[in-house]
Amino acid sequence: MTEYRRICIPGASWFFTVNLAERKGNQLLIDKIDLLREAFEYTKQRHPFRMDAVVVLPDHLHCIWTLPPHDSDFPKRWNMLKGDFSRNIEKNERISSSRNSRRERGIWQR
Predict the structure, then answer these.
(1) Of 81, 89, 93, 102, which has the highest C-beta tally within 10 A?
(2) pLDDT at 101
(3) Whose CA is closest to 56, among 23, 17, 84, 88?
(4) In terms of Cα–Cα distance, which of 78, 95, 109 is closest to 28?
């Protein structure tokens, strides 16, 4: 896995690209856009941020976020957003091996 080094500046704006685990022929993000929208709202209610821009494509998305003045913890927000979205997908959707092993151990239960 690629490791990025980012300067953590509280209140900064950040650009992100997030890909699905399986991209080829996968339209999950547009097919489940309502679940994605709910996951964004779920996350923003618990850990506020301003979404300056978002582009949702079938297999990946781009975002620009601005965090609150004394906060630089964007990883917490992505973990929460991705987790909420993933937990709400039907069981017959393809999932990554790491998510599957967590589900088997009961980590994904709310």
Answers:
(1) 81
(2) 57
(3) 17
(4) 95
Smallest CA-to-CA distance from 56 within 3, 1, 18, 99 is with: 18
- Whole-number pLDDT of residue 90: 83
Residues 6 or more apart from 61 whose CB is under 8 A from it?
17, 18, 29, 36, 54, 55
- Reported as a single tens digit per residue, the pLDDT across 35-81 is 999 999 999 999 999 999 999 999 999 999 999 999 999 999 999 99
Give the integer Cα–Cα distance in Å for 82 and 38: 11
- Which of helix, strand or coil describes residue 3? coil
End-to-end CA distance of the chain: 28
The token duo for 36 is 């994605």
DSSP string covering 42-105: HHHHHS--EEEEEEE-SSEEEEEEE--TT---HHHHHHHHHHHHHHTS-TTS---HHHHHHHHT
